[in-house]
Amino acid sequence: MKRFIQHFSLVSLIIGTLILCVQPVSAQYTVGDTVSDFTLNDLNGNPVSLSDFSGQYLLLNFFATW
User: What's the pLDDT band for 61 if we cut at 50, 70, 90?
Assistant: First the structure.
């Protein structure tokens, strides 16, 4: 149990340090701003660009699973 607490403390310290070192994003966007076009592959490997949805409502969901 003592070893677990030591490891947990070390990991917490490292994560806290990384969070403090992260610089805020310099670009600030507001509703209605135009963003740069980008292209990603869909689940079938076909390229899909943001511009393909021009004039339509689009919800982008960026997430990570670790």
Answer: confident
Quick one: residue 55, left, alpha or beta (phi over 0 = left, psi -120 to 50 = alpha)? left
Q: What are the C-alpha distances in Å from 49 to residues 10, 21, 36, 52, 62? A: 42, 33, 11, 5, 15
Q: Break the chain into its structural domains and give their ranges.
A: 39-66
Tell me the whole-structure pTM to 2 decimals. 0.43
Q: How far apart are CA 64 and CA 58, in angstroms?
A: 19
Q: Taking Cα atoms as reference points, which of 26, 62, 65, 28 lies closest to residue 50? A: 62
Tell me the residue type at 26.
S
6-24 tens-digit pLDDT: 666 777 767 766 666 665 6
